[in-house]
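Marked as duplicate of an earlier ticket. Keeping the data here for the record.
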Amino acid sequence: MRAAIEELITLLDLEPLEHNLFRGRSPQAGWQRVFGGQVIGQSLAAANRTVDGRFCHSLHGYFMRPGDPAVPIIYQVQRLRDGRSFTTRLVNAIQHGESIFTLMASYQVEEGGFQHAFEMPDVPGPEELPDEAELKRLIDERAPEEIKRYFARPRPLELRPTEHTHYLTHDKLPPRQYLWMRATDHLPDDVLIHQAALAYMSDMTLLDTSLFPHGQSVFSKEVISASLDHAMWFHRPFRADDWLLYAMDSPSSSGARGFTRGFFFTRDGTLVASTAQEGLIRPRTR
């Protein structure tokens, strides 16, 4: 577990090349393309390197090309604005001379003000759910081969879904899911690292929710799936190495695209971050 979390920390610790220019690398895990959450997290980490004393409150990104895990990713940051209250950065992720992802991130000085938030859904806590070892045993007994391979990979995250039916059947299910997740080991006491880690985590399982009503998943050979865009808002302080409930739903799918939303809650029910994403969910015709 510690090796996996060290790899995540290293992944988010970009190499500075020049002013506003950074290099990130991908784990050599045999993946055909770079995990979208990695590019989001590294892009945010690049933007963070150019901002002092402020923390990101929102980010918006577009995926344009699949990332190649075999070569580094260059992150070019543009300092668009440094205002009294807000700071804005634009990040361009480049491989083979072409943009694969762009990110706009906004930062704010700490302020007070009005407060309200959704309540956390009433779901079992992480201790009441199968741990990773138990979940793997359930998956190995009944799940398709591609899902077994996914759960066999070492990850820097521990996942505890409140339901695992969608891993085992092609039943049509309501377009929502609840998943407890956290980093598998302690992360440094740096808000920026926890934000980048949560950005990495936020792309995991989100798009899959839009396929539940159709009896499919992103693992299915009958579907071509890919993240198209991703937005995230940080509302309140959190730690990515403490349990967070990721509550996801999909209000709509159409035009070979699925739209999904997500909300992160701490154990005490505090809403700390929100996400939204649209992704390609194209039925494979041949």
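See parent ticket for discussion. The longest strand covers residues 271-283.
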